[in-house]
Amino acid sequence: MFGRLNNRRHFKELSEKEILALAISSEEDDARIYMTYAEQIRQDYPATAEMLDGMAKEEERHRQRLIDLYRTRFGEVIPLLRREHVAGYYTRNPVWLIGSLGVERIRKEVWGMEHAAREFYQRAATRATDASTRKLLGDLALAEAGHQKLSDRLTSKHLTGEAKTEEDALAHRQFVLTWVQPGLAGLMDGSVSTLAPIFATAFATQDPWTTFLVGLAASVGAGISMGFTEAASDDGTISGRGSPLKRGFASGIMTAVGGLGHALPYLIPDFWTATTIAIIVVFCELWAIAWIQKRFMQTPFLRAALQVVLGGSLVFAAGILIGSA
How far apart are alpha carbons 83 and 100 in whole angstroms? Predict the structure, then answer.
């Protein structure tokens, strides 16, 4: 790995011929990125996909202009020079990662891509000593600035107020179905279902370390169970709830977090100190669940709080009674 990094050229070491070749490959890569994003979201977000199609076409036009300029100055053979070959050159985030984060993240990425390219070329131009190189870098910076303006124009053309509102509402719904709903179910299950075993163990043994081990086992076990159950219950094709892998991770992790919240205080050696902190954490967890229900599920806060706190309190009381028997 380090050998590959050390073999990378610095931008300041490139000739004008190499800078132009690098710009050509960068424009080609960006066009392919835009087309990939557009294909990923076309079915659900057609307006944004049209905007990305326009961006890709514009990148292709800029690439062709750069190729024409290269042919005029240096001939037909364009050396292979890509971003990863140049130390300090701006990079692009993985397409698979950004594409999985939703349409709003893609929109921000598009703007950031053009902004990063423009800023880099501008900084590079100020460091150039050769007049022709300085002009070339300045022209590339202006081209990237033009791309940003094009993005704004295409956004205005394709993403009208109504279209953007519809797409934003769909994106929010998908976020809730894929991440919030499974995560909330996991948090509720982890916070409530582990109350009885943890506090039953606590009051039966009055041993913080034993209580912590029981809480850790209950939390991790519940997290694994909930994660696999959520992932296997629905592939998301018909229901539209999104990737089962994402839902499984959201549910499993939040289940474990819900249980660990009131298990971790039992790392404190003093039993009553640990128990007091654990009880405080429990009520914080329950109020957090009520807030999430209000924020994302449009459940009235008082009703959500009553349901969650009442249910949690009953399980909590059952654990104490069983442990004290």
Answer: 23
